[in-house]
Design goal:
The protein has 152 residues and is an alpha/beta fold. 38% of the residues lie in helices and 12% in strands. The N and C termini lie far apart (47 Å). This is Phosphatase.
């Protein structure tokens, strides 16, 4: 099973892909598929977390970044850490993942809007292509706040 078969996989461009959970076999293929770094937003205590993930990734010589984001309460500080790490990895082939590509799609959409010239509409289309964020009020409010949307 290749990396692009991971749950809710989405290739953004030649340098960035996003996904939900990657299993141990997919994690072990990252280097062979050209990835140089992975950012994981899924907290280790999640029932979906892969216990050996850091070891599997690091054993391949791939940079591993762990930024646990509480799904029930996303924080600007979490995004800022993500933003900083992703900027540092510019030019490298990077996999961004969480459990279902919900956290990651929101964070990446915000990043793309702020740094890659995406319009707010494109950012929201990206998120909505993966999940229905409006069903999760904490996330809808978080994305609105991060994109600078004022609630009327």
């Amino acid at each position: 099973m290749s990396v692009d078969e991971a749950y809710n996989f989405k290739k953004i461009d030649d340098h960035v892909s996003t996904a939900g959970l990657l299993n141990e076999g997919q994690l072990a293929l990252l280097k062979a598929e050209g990835y140089e770094a992975l950012i994981n937003l899924l907290p280790d205590e999640s029932e979906y977390a892969v216990e050996k993930e850091p070891a599997i990734v690091k054993a391949q010589g791939i940079a591993y970044e762990y930024i646990p984001v509480d799904f029930s309460a996303p924080k600007a500080a979490d995004y800022q850490q993500f933003e900083s790490r992703l900027k540092e990895l510019s030019g490298k082939k990077v996999m961004l993942h969480c459990a279902a590509n919900y956290r990651v799609s929101a964070f990446f959409a915000i990043f793309a809007c702020k740094h890659l010239g995406w319009s707010e509409d494109r950012a929201r289309e990206h998120i909505n292509s993966i999940w229905q964020i409006e069903k999760y009020p904490a996330w809808a409010a978080f994305v609105d706040a991060m994109l600078g949307v004022k609630n009327a």
